[in-house]
Amino acid sequence: QRIESNRELRLRSRDIGAQKLAERAHQFRDTFQAEDWSFIVPRHSSENRPYLPVGILNKRFIINDSAFALYDAPLWNMALIASRLHLVWIGTVCGKLETRYRYSNTLGWNTFPVPKLTERNKSDLTRCAEDILLAREAHFPATIADLYDPEKMDELYPDLRAAHDRNDETLERIYIGRRFKNDTERLEKLFDLYTK
């Protein structure tokens, strides 16, 4: 009944594309799916978290509209998204839902200024992403909410905090050869690269 109801709905649509989809009323309209894995980035995230909790899913998952996905992207992309630099960028250029971060792929990811990366840079960032994932896995079945609780992260998950710190240091050295002093310096560099 649901499939037939969906078929009728699609046939009544003024959109020619939707009408054509009536032939496969049993399928989702959009079927984006990875060949191997997807990075999942929540559309909304607490402003209290020290990092944006990007995740990785195998190809069986379909990511809905409450999150964004990068399909089959190199693992070093996760290191970028999970960095303090990226969090500061999205906190500045993306919108908010009340006080929470509201991620936008067009405003946050597509505009994020990244210097030209060497193969060595990509390899180092890949290792950082792996370390973050391994630190999370070591605390299974802790949830993302547990792992990234700012009041508990340092005490309960120091290895995860250390993995993020290594990621930040590795990435920031690519940008300026050292760690940034503060978020103001991070934004100055990001906007300088963005304008260029």
Instruction: Give the proportion of residues in helices.
Output: 40-55%
Please give the order of strands in the largest beta sheet. Answer: 3-1-4
Largest sheet: 3 strands, antiparallel
The average pLDDT value, as a whole number, equals: 91
**C-alpha termini separation:** 56 Å
Shape: globular
Radius of gyration: 20 Å
Short account of what is shown:
The protein is mainly alpha-helical and 196 residues long. The chain has helices at residues 2-12, 16-20, 76-81, 84-93, 105-109, 119-137, 144-147, 153-156, 158-176, 183-195; strands at residues 37-42, 44-45, 55-58, 67-71, 95-97, 100-102.
Polypeptide structure, described:
It is built from ten helices and six strands; from the N terminus they run ααββββααββαααααα. It is mainly alpha-helical and 196 residues long. The model has no long low-confidence stretch (mean pLDDT 91). The protein has a three-stranded antiparallel beta sheet with strand order 3-1-4, with no helix packed on it. The chain has a three-stranded antiparallel beta sheet with strand order 2-6-5. The relative contact order is 0.12. Helix content is 49%, strand content 12%.
